[in-house]
Write a structure and sequence with these properties.
Layout (H helix, E strand, L loop, with lengths): L1 H4 L1 E8 L9 H7 L5 E8 H4 L7 H18 L5 E6 L1 H11 E9 L4 H15 L4 E5 L21 H14 L45 H10 L12 H6 L4 H11 L1 H19 L21 H9 L5 H13 L4 H14 L4 H11 L5 H12 L14 H8 L4 H6 L15 H18 L1
Helix pairs in contact: 7-11, 10-11, 11-16, 13-14, 14-16, 15-16
The chain binds a DNA duplex through helix 14 and helix 19.
Length: 439
DNA sequence: TGAAATGTTGGGGCG
DNA sequence: ACGCCCCAACATTTC
């Protein structure tokens, strides 16, 4: 009797696709002939690993409010849950007659495990689980070498990716919001941050919007100079799906091949993580697992705080600490410094970035670190050691970026470099060389 | 998506 | 005028 009163509904489960427009999974749900209820789950399995001041939770919270406002225009609401994924679905199923659950693919190891588990749980109750490809143009094994194995070098992957897109005339293009119905519901409040044990962090992230033409036109010229506003700053929006990759690719095709390549790097590393999940815990190239790192806690602490005595390195780390963002060139320079100059395991740095970066993406962060440390696929060779002085000369010639983050760098009490460049360089090359010889 | 070491070349000062 | 040296500029090799 009770059951008969429950409303029939499809569920659309938002995860890292926090937008209504050009959302493939949402479109699939809306086209399936039954009203759709949108939900978001604050997953304690993830939240319990984060600090209560994590700004990413504030960002998600802020974006969910906007989603809720947008859903109000469709006479519906976003329902949010706090707890384990299964607990959330138990509650949903007790209140609605759920037909099917829709969402978009999430390729990270934890997400794959989570989705498999909940799909099985839903299946045992006769509820379908439909996941769409949404966050990348090409996923998993869609761009492979002729012999059927995955690419492990970027350039040939990038060429194959572009050639596939060329032949894929329309099916990758952005779509409009489908015309199906949402389940009519009054607005419900988003679960409060404080309720979940998080404090609201100040955020200065503009709403997502397509980069303008002038930026894309000068992107190749300006992107390596951290003092110039030469990059799109869209990484955080790509991470949480507040902007659609298809819209960005469309812009890139028209205005900047260099920027398109960066979007392809993102898919390259996602593909690498999918096919080589061992990279999460070890080097892509196993012989690099035996490097005798110095792993000095004290050195690591100075690096984290931006007190290495190398102004440009310190500037990068302080930008990260103060804003949750770091310019890409600085990510390379600070990573090279940690693994080569300080001989600290790149995984320490990877973990620090993972904690601090608002745009933290497991696949890109891991790929970037392994690239810098020389142990990744298509990595920088081990003897390629960035010279922080030269990098400053080349990419921050007026010290504008350095001054912005390390205003005291020319003062008398600014620390001496914590390690001499010439010494550290040859020590790194020798250490790597000896390790690789033994394998 | 390096940097340093080493090699080569050629102009200019000088005897 | 010529050979010699120095060294900057550029190229190549090596790490």
């Amino acid at each position: 009797m009770e059951d008969l009163q429950l409303q029939k509904t499809h569920i659309f489960w938002f995860r890292r696709d926090l937008r209504l427009d050009d959302n493939r999974g949402l479109a699939a749900a809306l086209e399936d002939g039954c009203p759709v209820l949108a939900i978001f789950i604050f997953d304690t399995q993830i939240l319990d690993t984060l600090s209560s001041t994590d700004a990413r939770v504030s960002f998600i919270h802020q974006r969910l409010k906007k989603l809720n406002e947008a859903l109000a225009n469709h006479e519906t609401t976003l329902l949010t849950f706090y707890g384990s994924v299964q607990q959330a679905f138990e509650r949903i199923c007790s209140k609605f007659d759920v037909q099917s659950v829709y969402c978009n693919h999430d390729y990270e190891p934890y997400a794959v495990m989570r989705d498999n588990k909940i799909m099985e749980w839903l299946g045992s109750r006769g509820i379908g689980f439909h996941s769409s490809q949404d966050q990348v143009i090409y996923e998993k094994s869609q761009v492979m070498k002729g012999d059927g194995t995955p690419y492990t070098v970027f350039t040939p992957y990038m060429k194959a990716w572009k050639s596939k897109l060329n032949q894929d005339t329309r099916n990758w293009e952005p779509t409009k919001l489908s015309t199906g119905n949402f389940l009519a519901m009054d607005q419900q409040a988003i679960t409060g941050l404080e309720t979940m044990g998080f404090s609201k962090q100040p955020l200065e992230i503009p709403d997502p919007q397509l980069p303008d033409k002038s930026l894309l036109n000068r992107y190749q010229k300006d992107r390596d100079y951290p003092a110039r506003n030469g990059t799109s700053r869209l990484s955080v929006h790509l991470r949480f799906g507040t902007i659609s990759i298809r819209k960005l690719v469309k812009e890139a095709l028209e205005h900047s091949d260099t920027w398109l390549n960066e979007l392809i790097w993102r898919e390259f590393y996602m593909m690498i993580l999918w096919h080589f999940p061992h990279v999460v815990n070890e080097c892509f190239k196993p012989e690099y697992n035996f490097i005798p790192w110095k792993n000095s806690e004290e050195d690591f602490d100075r690096w984290c705080k931006g007190q290495t005595g190398y102004p440009l390195v310190d500037a990068g780390m302080r930008e990260l600490n103060q804003t949750g963002y770091m310019h890409n060139r600085l990510r390379m320079i600070t990573a090279s410094f940690l693994s080569k100059h300080l001989l600290i395991n790149w995984q320490w740095g990877e973990a620090y970035f993972a904690e601090k970066l608002l745009d933290f993406e497991l696949s890109s962060n891991n790929g970037g670190w392994q690239w810098s440390a020389g142990c990744g696929c298509d990595a920088a060779p081990y003897f390629r050691v960035f010279n922080p002085w030269l990098q400053a000369e080349k990419f921050d010639p007026e010290s504008e970026y350095t001054r912005r983050w390390v205003p005291e760098y020319q003062d008398a009490d600014y620390p001496e470099p914590m390690v001499d460049h010439r010494f550290a360089r040859s020590r790194a090359i020798e250490t790597y060389q000896q390790t690789l010889q033994k394998q």
